[in-house]
Amino acid sequence: MNVKTASVCPVSSQVNGVKAVNGVNGEVKDCPAKGGLFREWRRPDLPSKCTYQPGAPLEKSPHLHVKPQDRLKIMPNILHNIGNSPLVRLNRIPQHDGLKCEFLVKCEFFNAGGSVKDRIGLRMIEDAEARGNIKPGDVLIEPTSGNTGIGIALASAVKGYRCIIVMPEKMSMEKVDVLRALGAEIVRTPTSASFDSPESHIGVAKRLMEEIPNSHILDQYRNPSNPIAHFDQTAEEILDACDGKIDMLIASAGTGGTIAGLSRKIKMKCPNCKIVGVDPYGSILAQPEAMNKSEVSFYEVEGIGYDFVPTVLSRDLIDKWYKSSDRESFLMARRLIREEGLLCGGSSGSAMYCAVQAAKDAGLKKGQRVVVILPDSIRNYMSKFLSDDWMSQRDFLELEQQLEPSKEWWWNLNVSALKLLAPLTVMPSVSIQDTLDLLNKEGFDQVPVVDETG
In which pathway does this enzyme or protein participate (predicted)? Predict the structure, then answer.
């Protein structure tokens, strides 16, 4: 990978030419009296101090930059299958919704680890290696909603790092299982903990870094390598595929690195392109701030939205925001799967639902082009929005979708026609040991206790 060395960005891991040796993005200060370095952890919601201005020559950028990589016939390792995701035209959904403009979706679930966050996981590691901040055998710690963790764990498995992922309990077990399979160690934190709480995934990661020797937090919330990965590569892939013609781009925001990096580069090449951000109800990323006033305090969609504005999210780069609900997101994700054959995750539904609304509001016509980022795959949510039962329990399905009597062979039968077994019950006088033996024998995990009266 061709790396351009550059002067130091104020938010990078080098200050006054000194390299961090125990942390990638902590504040690093020269301490001659001690003959070494000491660090102060920084909040993930501080304003960016990046000095690079949109439109300025890359030679003046304080960051490391790489050229988009060509697809190889034979890849040296799986990390070379990160990037160059396909751009696919939608057909049935735009037609069904009465839209004449062209819809293209960037299918980021084709990356090696299954999400757009593979790009930043690898990029943060490689930039830190290029600066000499980390070396194989070190410990990489990351607070994440899961996908960035998978990207980092994947790269760690290939490169030889120990990886610890700290993630809220809300995140799916599928993500946990994938992380464990990649060799990562998992620490779960309360979903209800605010970002600046010691019990949050960010607070726990900070504490682990302080306790574990040779450990580093890559810090996707502040690390400039996050948006730069998309500035250098994702945006270039889109511009190349579209021959520089894009009228609107829609992306959901979590850390905000994806939409910030895309906006910076695309606005340089297509200044009239409208950049639309998507933020779930219950999050505070959207602007104007009044949009964030809501009775919703919890949302099921994973990987987008936060209770703070990450440093890497330059909200001035977004032209318009839309808010998304769980129901709208999951139903649209199901439509993308069923009508377009795209095996995507729930936040893809958020982006696509708002893309349809944004295209209608803008009055886009035939010949105009919309690009939508689909962040991750169906793999992480097999037990969630793919399940009719899970959707029904949360009232996300229409009544007719829940019933669908034609699918049930028993729908028109009388109850008397069903060969039902007598329910397993125990009397109050039965001992606990005998009850447990009965449950094991019959293969049940619960049993009602009834007396003589029923």
Answer: Amino-acid biosynthesis; L-cysteine biosynthesis; L-cysteine from L-homocysteine and L-serine: step 1/2
